[in-house]
# Entry
Amino acid sequence: MTQSQIRRTLLQRQFELTQRLSALEVDLQKSHSHDWSEQAQERENDEVLEAIASRTANELMQIDQVLRKIGSAGYGICVNCGHAIGKERLKVLPETQHCVSCAKLAH
# Structure
């Protein structure tokens, strides 16, 4: 996969995530029911939506960082150890900033 193909893939994913985040924000701004039992369920749902929104925002941030690196010598280099990230890993996870070894250490 070339860097231009990776860029297109990341831009498409960025668009999808931006749309998802916008929809989540709209859902989170909806007013709650006046019924106490309904409010409890709605608040639980809000917690789930907030967690999804947080993960989505984090993924968008990662994609933005990687898009700034594409075309430079920094793309495909692990931010932890400085070694090259494998081409197969980049094909599967073009937004990754960690080689397999460092990713394993993080989990």
